[in-house]
């Protein structure tokens, strides 16, 4: 039994699921669910719809080139059944899966590398621009406890919280 | 607390409205669906015009009777049709009454595994009363369900099987 990929979202179409549309030039479009089918009928481009695999690939959100994807490739030549080979394949599947997951995690980590510094920089800029809205400049001059470095420390704490929130997301 | 009570009240109300067997709600849903999707595809019934995808000489036929099914014919069913357009020197002439097998239908049809299949247009292959094709070629994709319907000849003539 072959597990096909959805034309729109690239998820797996299990047997008995979804709908397939055959165009007059005999190209087959398979859809995993009515959501994908409806989006196809609306003539949407999967590369421009954010929740699809195609979008994530194009915009560098997901890993695109990896040797673990080779195992999932569609082959048109049927493999002759061999008990030993089947056994080895079953053994290898969890291992390959694990490798793929760790690589994806690494890719995500690399992608998010500059995020913390960027958030920090933005917050500092906002603070410098908007401090006059909270305290008048004259008050700042009079009261030494309200000078910028101290407040900076305070805000950096807040930022760390923000960062935590971002990480959780 | 106020908000909570409001939410509870809303959910109760929603439950009530859902539980009440309303004809109104269903009709509303149907209209909404039609707004967003394409035209609703239906059965091949009397006066449906179908394309002929073989070299029998006919170009377009109009369905005058579906041989099976109360509502009409679907993918793989046999119909009786009258030839509306034909090539000048083909086997089949305009105005003749012919039999045909629906090889492509725009209305989706369930497959044996539970998934569904649909095609671009409504197309037919002309056959005689015994089920043998009149033409010698079949153009475009045909579904593999024809094998169950004992139209193996059409399947062998076809180039693409979907």
Automatic annotation (TrEMBL), chain A:
GO terms for molecular function: structural constituent of ribosome. Residues 6-44 form the TRASH domain. GO terms for cellular component: nucleolus; ribosome. SUPFAM superfamilies: Glucocorticoid receptor-like (DNA-binding domain). Keywords: Nucleus, Ribonucleoprotein, Ribosomal protein, Ribosome biogenesis. The keyword Coiled coil does not apply. It is found in: Nucleus. One of its GO terms (biological process) is ribosomal large subunit biogenesis. Pfam families: Ribosomal_L24e. InterPro entries: L24e/L24_sf, Ribosomal_eL24, Ribosomal_eL24-rel_N, Ribosomal_eL24_CS, TRASH_dom. It comes from the Eukaryota. Belongs to the eukaryotic ribosomal protein eL24 family. This is Large subunit ribosomal protein L24e. It comes from Vigna unguiculata (Cowpea).
From TrEMBL, chain B:
One of its GO terms (molecular function) is large ribosomal subunit rRNA binding. Keywords: Ribonucleoprotein, Ribosomal protein, RNA-binding, rRNA-binding. PROSITE patterns: RIBOSOMAL_L14 (PS00049). The keyword Ribosomal protein applies. SMART domains: Ribosomal_L14. It comes from the Eukaryota. One of its GO terms (biological process) is translation. GO terms for cellular component: mitochondrial large ribosomal subunit. HAMAP family: Ribosomal_uL14. PANTHER family: 50S/60S RIBOSOMAL PROTEIN L14/L23 (PTHR11761), LARGE RIBOSOMAL SUBUNIT PROTEIN UL14M (PTHR11761:SF3). Belongs to the universal ribosomal protein uL14 family. This is Large subunit ribosomal protein L14. It comes from Vigna unguiculata (Cowpea). The lineage of its organism: Eukaryota, Viridiplantae, Streptophyta, Embryophyta, Tracheophyta.
């Amino acid at each position: 039994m072959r597990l096909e990929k959805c034309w729109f979202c690239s998820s797996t179409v299990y047997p008995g699921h979804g709908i397939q549309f055959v165009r007059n030039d005999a190209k087959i479009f398979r859809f995993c669910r009515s959501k994908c089918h409806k989006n196809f009928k609306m003539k949407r481009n999967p590369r421009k719809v954010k929740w699809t695999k195609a979008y994530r690939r194009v915009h560098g959100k997901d890993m695109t080139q990896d040797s673990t994807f080779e195992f999932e490739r569609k082959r048109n030549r049927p493999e002759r059944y061999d008990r030993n080979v089947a056994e080895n394949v079953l053994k290898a599947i969890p291992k390959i899966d694990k490798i793929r997951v760790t690589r994806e995690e690494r890719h995500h980590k690399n992608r998010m590398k500059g995020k913390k510094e960027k958030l920090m920089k933005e917050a500092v800029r906002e603070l410098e621009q908007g401090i006059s809205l909270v305290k008048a400049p004259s008050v700042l001059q009079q009261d030494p406890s309200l000078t910028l470095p101290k407040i900076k420390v305070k805000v950096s704490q807040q930022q760390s919280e923000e960062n935590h929130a971002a990480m959780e997301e | 607390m106020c908000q909570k009570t409001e939410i509870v009240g809303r959910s109760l109300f929603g439950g009530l409205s859902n539980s009440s067997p309303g004809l109104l709600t269903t009709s509303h849903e149907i209209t909404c669906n039609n707004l967003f999707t394409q035209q609703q595809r239906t059965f091949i019934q009397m006066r449906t015009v179908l394309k002929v995808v073989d070299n029998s000489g006919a170009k377009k036929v109009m369905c005058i009777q579906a041989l099976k099914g109360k509502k009409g014919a679907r993918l793989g069913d046999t119909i009786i049709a009258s030839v509306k357009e034909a090539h000048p020197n083909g086997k089949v002439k305009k105005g003749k009454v012919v039999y045909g097998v629906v090889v492509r239908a725009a209305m989706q049809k369930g497959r044996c595994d539970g998934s569904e299949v649909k095609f671009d247009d409504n197309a037919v292959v002309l056959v005689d009363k015994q089920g043998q094709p009149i033409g010698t070629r079949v153009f475009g994709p045909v579904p593999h369900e024809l094998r169950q319907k004992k139209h193996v000849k059409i399947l062998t003539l076809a180039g693409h099987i979907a």
